[in-house]
Amino acid sequence: MKSNYMIVSAACLCCAFSIFSAPQKIIPADISSGVQSAKIAKPSDTAKAEIKKDTLKRDSVKTGFGRLHIIATPDSAVVVMDSNTRGTAPIIIDSIVPGEHTVLIRKKGYFIKKISFVALADTTQQLSVSLVRPGGLVVKSDPVGARLFLDDKESGATPWENVKLKPGDYKIRLEYLQHETFEKNVSIKDGLCDTMSVTLPYTKTYLDSIAAVKQHKEAAKHKADLITNLAVFGAFLIFGLVIIATEAANNNL
């Protein structure tokens, strides 16, 4: 009887061990939901997130909850989940209630990364994030005071500086009255600041108008000089005729 009891107990223990030691599912974040939930909101829309399969070894995890392994580049970025600070990356967050959650990953000098993901029960998900630093651009012009448009939106006047631009491509346009419009596409790099110096030439219309005014002034001056010369000549002519008439009158006497 005692021997049979020991055999039954051992069988129960083996069964319990096999149940609690069953491997946990490990899948990439959000793959099962069919949605790439790297939802990014300004000003945090510049970081890059890569979701891939986790390779963590299983340890004691509560059943019915999700688990998230976060890796950030650079490391030591602060991780905030659902408005609660959880630590710094790399980090493993356990006991996540299944459903949608929001994660903020931030580090001084970098754009904030905001991600929405769906936690799955009894599943470990891994999230790899690359944060990016702002880039900068300085624009100078001759003449100064040109209106500056960034992607067709007026952003100020030269000299102009912005050191918090998201890395990427932008269109710069400069406008100044009676000067040619300047347009150029620029590429802002992660953590770098570029300087652009531009000379805005006069428009052909303005130069033609200046030439026409100058020509008109020269013509008016020439006409005035001609009238003056004619007046002087006429005065001398009249003066000469008066002298001749006077001498003739004296001779007749």
List the helices and strands and how they pair.
Elements: H1 2-20, E1 25-26, E2 48-52, E3 66-73, E4 78-81, E5 84-88, E6 91-96, E7 99-106, E8 113-119, E9 123-130, E10 135-142, E11 147-150, E12 153-157, E13 160-165, E14 168-175, E15 182-188, E16 193-199, H2 204-252
Parallel strand pairs: 1-9, 3-9, 10-16
Antiparallel strand pairs: 2-9, 3-6, 4-5, 4-7, 7-8, 10-13, 11-12, 11-14, 14-15
Could you explain how this protein is built, in words?
- It is a single chain.
- This protein has 253 residues and is α+β, with helices and mostly antiparallel strands.
- 27% of the residues lie in helices and 39% in strands.
- It has three domains: 23-130, Immunoglobulin-like; 135-199, Immunoglobulin-like (Sandwich), CATH 2.60.40.1120; 207-237.
- Strands 1, 2, 3, 6 and 9 form a five-stranded mixed sheet that branches. The chain has a four-stranded antiparallel sheet with strand order 5-4-7-8, with no helix packed on it.
Quick summary:
The chain is α+β, with helices and mostly antiparallel strands and 253 residues long.
End-to-end CA span: 184 Å
- Structure summary, number of beta strands: 16
Helix percentage range: 25-40%
CATH architecture annotation of the largest domain:
Sandwich
Count of helices?
2
Taken as a percent bin, the fraction of beta residues is 35-45%
Structural class: alpha+beta
Low-confidence stretches: 1-48, 52-59
